[in-house]
Structure formats: structure tokens, C-alpha cells
Q: What sequence folds into this?
């Protein structure tokens, strides 16, 4: 069997539940690959679910701190080693596609640390200006990240610091070697079922303390612009706090934004990090877990 199992799929597909069932059956521990669940104090807003198995890389970071894919890779690799050396199975589960890709690729080659002075200078440009500047030196990264200002800025920063486009900084040999160490299972949900589930989840989040949780974190001195609040739903929450929308509109906006995100995730996982096999997420988690463990054993034989 490959050393590690990876569970991917859109938000709301039940990745954590399946990972937990795998851990129960095979004595494992979960490594989260979710860029929002790293933040402390935002369990409702990031939909952090309790599990029987221990979870790594969740609820450890201040809402005011940024967290990069390179940092995730190093932390996940350390967690993998720690779990494996104790004779347990590392199970990586999450929907942040870039985290999964970085894991499969073997990290980012010699990426420079953030240069705050350079970032301050580049931040004076508009998003369109950053895009045009990046496109002149690294068109692949510019087009790939056109809808993500933070990644556009990072790609331009990397080029300015190293003179090498980010799109060329991958090591194919290392990527192939790393990918062979994983069995990747993708969870698939019929579109209407997923939409209904995400709409219901948005309502549960609002009734389950999302507003109070957000107010508490704001009250701790974290601004609305802090990294943790770039996640889905928080702009709508701020509008509700400001009295601009009512609770039903809040729920609707969170649901719509989450459904759009799920669609983007599905596209990513099908094109950027295709799994070894897709599984029907509408069946019980224990059934899916059993199928994944069986297929992983065959794949690793």
C-alpha cells in the first residue's frame, strides 16, 4: 500500500468523515489540507468538524497571520513523518487544491521568503497593474491566477527576487516521485444533492454561532482585512453586522458563494490534481472508506 492516502473533493462532500472512517479502520491520523481551518477561533466559519482521529494542522494559527502553500508543505511533510514513525497511517484530507498540488509536486523549489519592502512597493499597483506586469515576465502564472490578487502578487514578487518565473520552478522528477507515494481518492457528489447540502450547511452555520464567532475575533483586535477573513462568507457576515442585509440574505449569499467555490474546486481536482479514482460520496462514510482502503492496497501491491 502507498504510505499515504489523500482525500479530495469539493466542500461539503464529506472528506473529513471519510478520512475519519479510514483512520478508525486502519489506525491513522488526519492531516488537514484546508487553508481556512488553520486559523484559531473560527471553527464555525471554517466548518471545522470534530473527529475521533487526531487532526493535524487545524486551529493553530492567529487570524492575523498569512499561511502559504510552501509553509503547508513543510508542516504536512513533518506531520506525515511523525504519524508514520509511530506506526500509523497518515490520511491527508482537504479541499485547498494548491495545498494538494504542492504536496504532490514535492513543494516549491527554493522559493524565497516574502520581502515586505518589495511587497509594499508592489501593493501600490492595482490588481490589473500587477497582472499586466506579471504577464510580461511570467504569462503562465498571470493567466493561471488572474482571479486571485494574492497569488498574482506572490508570483510577481518571486520573479522580482529571483529572476525566474514561478511557473518554471517545479522539479518534474521530484513531482513524479512524490505523487507515487500517495493513493488519492476524489469524492464526487451529484450536483443537486451538493447544492442542497451546502444551502443547509449555510443555515446551520448562521444559526450555530457564525455571527458571534466573527464578532469575538473582531473584538480581539483582528481587522476585517486580516487573512482569516478572506474566506468564503465573511464579507456577507460583515454586511449583516453593519445592518446592510438580514439573516435570510446572509444565508443565501453564503450558500451561493460556497456553491460557486465547490464548482471551482471540482474543476481544479479534475484538471490539476486528478485522483486515482472517484468515489460516490452519497454512500455512508464507512463504506467509502472501506472501498478506498481496498483500492489503495491493490494500487500499492
A:
Amino acid at each position: 500500500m502507498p504510505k499515504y492516502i489523500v482525500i479530495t473533493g469539493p466542500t461539503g462532500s464529506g472528506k473529513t468523515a471519510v478520512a475519519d472512517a479510514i483512520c478508525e479502520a486502519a489506525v491513522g491520523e488526519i492531516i488537514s489540507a484546508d487553508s481556512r481551518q488553520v486559523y484559531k477561533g473560527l471553527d464555525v466559519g471554517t466548518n471545522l468538524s470534530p473527529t475521533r482521529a487526531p487532526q493535524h494542522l487545524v486551529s493553530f494559527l492567529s487570524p492575523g497571520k498569512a499561511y502559504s502553500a510552501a509553509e503547508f508543505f513543510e508542516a504536512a511533510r513533518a506531520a506525515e513523518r511523525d504519524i508514520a514513525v509511530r506506526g500509523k497511517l497518515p490520511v491527508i484530507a482537504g479541499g485547498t487544491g494548491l495545498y494538494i498540488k504542492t504536496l504532490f509536486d514535492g513543494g516549491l523549489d527554493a522559493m524565497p521568503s516574502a520581502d515586505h519592502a518589495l511587497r509594499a512597493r508592489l501593493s501600490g499597483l492595482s490588481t490589473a497593474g500587477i497582472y499586466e506586469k506579471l504577464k510580461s515576465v511570467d504569462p503562465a502564472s498571470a493567466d493561471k491566477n488572474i482571479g486571485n490578487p494574492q497569488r498574482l502578487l506572490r508570483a510577481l514578487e518571486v520573479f522580482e527576487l529571483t529572476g525566474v518565473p514561478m511557473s518554471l520552478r517545479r522539479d518534474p522528477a521530484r513531482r513524479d516521485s512524490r505523487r507515487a507515494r500517495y493513493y488519492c481518492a476524489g469524492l464526487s457528489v451529484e450536483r443537486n444533492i451538493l447544492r442542497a447540502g451546502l444551502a443547509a450547511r449555510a443555515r446551520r452555520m448562521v444559526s450555530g454561532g457564525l455571527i458571534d464567532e466573527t464578532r469575538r475575533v473582531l473584538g480581539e483586535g483582528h481587522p476585517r482585512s486580516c487573512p482569516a477573513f478572506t474566506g468564503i462568507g465573511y464579507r456577507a457576515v460583515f454586511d449583516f453586522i453593519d445592518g446592510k442585509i438580514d439573516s435570510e440574505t446572509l444565508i443565501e449569499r453564503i450558500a451561493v458563494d460556497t456553491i460557486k467555490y465547490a464548482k471551482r474546486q471540482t474543476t481544479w481536482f479534475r484538471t490539476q490534481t486528478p485522483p486515482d479514482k472517484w468515489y460516490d460520496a452519497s454512500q455512508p462514510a464507512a463504506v467509502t472508506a472501506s472501498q478506498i482502503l481496498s483500492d489503495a492496497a491493490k494500487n500499492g501491491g
Q: What stands out?
A: The first strand starts at residue 4 and ends at 8. Strands lie at 4-8, 28-32, 55-56, 89-93, 182-188, 277-280.
